[in-house]
Specification:
Strand order of the largest sheet: 1-6-7-9
Number of strands: 9
Largest sheet: 4 strands, antiparallel
Shape: elongated
Strand content: 35-45%
Structural class: mainly beta
Low-confidence stretches: none
Mean pLDDT: 85
Amino acid sequence: SFRMQWDYTQGGDMYSSTSVNLVGRGVTKETDFDRTLPFVLPGVKADGTKNDVQVSATEAFFNNLVGSTNDLGIYDATVIRLREASLSYSLSDKALAKTPFGGISFTISGTNLWYNAPNFPKYVHFDPETSGFGVSSGRGLEFFTGPSSRRIGASIRVTF
């Protein structure tokens, strides 16, 4: 038998200190560009014309992101996740007919096997379900939590 459980959470704002600092410090592929070249931030100037002001990579990322809590660190927390999957095989009654066993089954299973949070920076690989607070009242705020864990296991069940 095979079974799996998918979860989908739509929306919700989340401040992610981990994401904003990894991007701001330039340690992800999002900032894998020639940092000596000038950078033009998307947007418009105060008069409504397209922004054409050149800034350095430090001004664009590090100065705006690292060490500050602002709207640049707020992301849409939509996530799709393969929460759990398992594959089981049971030996048939015919195979067990001449044994003292009533049943034997083998199972491999895993939890938190895959997720995609499409609105966070792609190469940060951030999981919106992480929480450094340990309680649900802190949902929506994340301050340098570790990555979520993936668990894989196997079992053998024998009955007599």
